[in-house]
Design goal:
There is one protein chain. By secondary structure, the protein is α+β, with helices and mostly antiparallel strands. Helix content is 29%, strand content 25%. The longest helix has 20 residues.
């Protein structure tokens, strides 16, 4: 017999038990030896002082347990197959390549940055020497911006593709099966590089190609048909099908398309700051506890949103037990991002707190830049962050309470941000469009989460790469409406907002490119 049940277990009961199997057997009045369980979903309900774990289970009573995965990834040998060229090896590019293998076509990937191992030296250079390699950093290189993030897998893009298939693919390539169960799954910045490397090896072992340090610098187009791509300014590669998966920070691609009069569209986005608290403060708020949290509970997270002056102010990419990192892609800018290791065991919690920016209503002063006005606005704020931080990768910062109250911070709190912080009056430096709304939002968040509004928290500027401020249009066949053979894809095209949605879009673009090949 197979039963599907919902189980609600208090923290106290979980702590005193010998496991969820024992609790399930007791609830059902059965012997533990007579059942096998499969956890389908696990979440925590900490809204009240009594904390509960919610489980969705399949219980097999005197039945064998089926195999874990219902997916069978059959990658073909494509050594001699027709090529599909993929520009960029982030999530969209990786899953486009994997889908090509399944469909019997040869993925040939061009990645401007380095492989995961060699990228580490450039990340160290940013953190310790304040040196930004424009082609290899937290945004560019094998795995894209996702490689050295914490691999958050939560997505609302449930209608864009098979979310479970992406999760199973990650497990196939080395991720923990816990991501199939957790309500808000993540992999961890310490685990992702190996998974990314495994995906690359799958591609190469089945006849695909991955070329690092290879930047696409031009597209050769005749009669609105893509004919070839130029690599590193000198090498030409004939190509009939190109999946453009360059990510939200590949600004040179947007400038290239603009120069060639290929249609672009300005896109709304969000910008703001990172806020960093000691993790124990967030734990105390969310778990209603004093002192250290129960070891069964993960580092607490939060999600906040508020409407102020007609704009949404909200938390973005919240990283419990994490750290803030420098995400600049040019030497004259400071950009911050956040991530967590798999155990989420760092001393700090950080989150982007950002303001919605309507590119059509809010940026009138930048209209001369046409469809790239949002990008220019973004760049200006990143340069302001660079100059106010001392013209290094040190980031401008302020105590949270000082920012809201409009005061200079004479001292700053300890931080996880390795390049260091520099006190700066962000309350007056940030554009009014962003700064005034952030100040109102933080004050409101302090009312929703008692203890969130504290002088023990820093805000750090700027969080600007939440999404691309430009989109590259495509038609119902996922092809650029003006250029035959060009398939804008993922976050850089404006069609994704994270690892999972980008991966699903990569698969769809691969299918579309191959369908046109077959026709």
């Amino acid at each position: 017999m197979i039963r599907e049940i919902q189980l609600r277990v208090s923290l106290e009961e979980e702590a005193q038990s010998s496991g969820i199997k024992a609790i399930t057997a007791k609830r059902l009045g059965l012997l533990e030896s007579n059942i096998k369980i499969k956890v389908k979903r696990k979440s925590i309900d900490a809204r009240k002082p009594t904390i509960y774990f919610n489980y969705k289970l399949e219980v097999y009573i005197n039945e064998p347990m089926p195999k874990t995965s219902t997916y069978d990834f059959r990658y073909k040998d494509v050594s001699n197959a027709k090529p599909v060229h993929i520009i960029g090896f982030g999530p969209a590019g990786m899953w486009a390549a994997l889908r090509c293998l399944e469909l019997g076509f040869k993925p040939v990937v061009f990645e401007r940055g380095k492989n995961v191992k060699d990228r580490r030296r450039d990340l160290k250079a940013i953190n310790q020497d304040h040196f930004v390699n424009k082609e290899s950093n937290y945004c560019f290189g094998e795995g894209g911006a996702g490689t050295y993030s914490d691999g958050k897998l939560y997505t609302r893009s449930l209608k864009r593709g098979d979310v479970r298939r992406v999760f199973e693919s990650l497990v196939y390539h080395g991720a923990s099966e816990e991501i199939l169960v957790d309500a808000h799954p993540h992999i961890g910045t310490n685990k992702l590089p190996k998974i990314v490397q495994n995906i690359r090896e799958t591609i190469i072992n089945h006849g695909g190609e991955v070329h690092f340090n290879t930047k696409v610098t031009d597209l050769i187009i005749k009669d609105n048909i893509l004919k070839s791509i130029i690599l590193n300014d000198n090498k030409s590669v004939n190509s009939q099908r190109v999946i453009l998966a360059t990510g939200h920070s590949a600004r040179d691609i947007f400038y290239l398309l603009q120069k060639k009069n290929i249609a672009l569209k300005a896109k709304s986005f969000a910008m703001g700051v990172r806020v960093e608290h000691p993790q124990h403060i967030i734990d105390a708020i969310q778990y209603h506890c004093k002192g250290e949290r129960n070891e069964l509970l993960p580092a607490a997270s939060y999600s906040l949103v508020h409407q102020t002056k007609g704009k949404g102010v909200y938390s973005f990419c919240m990283c419990p037990g994490g750290f803030i990192v420098p995400a600049a892609t040019a030497p004259d800018e400071v950009v911050v991002n956040g991530m967590s290791p798999s155990k989420r065991n760092n001393l700090y919690a950080n989150s982007g707190i950002v303001v919605e920016i309507d590119v059509h209503k809010d940026l009138h002063k930048f209209e001369a830049h046409g469809e790239l006005r949002g990008l220019v606005y973004q760049k200006n704020l990143e340069h302001l962050s660079f100059t106010s931080g001392g013209r290094t990768q040190s980031a401008p910062s302020q105590r949270l309470t000082d920012f809201v109250e409009g005061k200079i911070s004479n001292t700053l709190n300890p931080t996880s941000y390795q390049p260091g912080l520099k006190s700066a009056p962000l309350h007056s430096l940030l554009p009014k469009l962003i700064g005034s709304r952030l100040r109102a939002g933080f004050a409101e968040f302090g009312k929703k989460m008692k203890g969130f509004y504290t002088s023990e928290a820093n805000i750090v500027g700027v969080e600007s790469r939440t999404s691309s401020p430009v989109s590259i249009p495509r038609n119902e066949k996922l092809e650029h409406p003006e250029i035959k053979g060009l398939y804008p894809c993922g976050e850089g095209g404006g069609y994704a907002g994270g690892i999972v949605s980008a991966a699903m879009d990569g698969e769809r673009c691969a299918e579309a490119a191959i369908e046109c090949y077959n026709n």
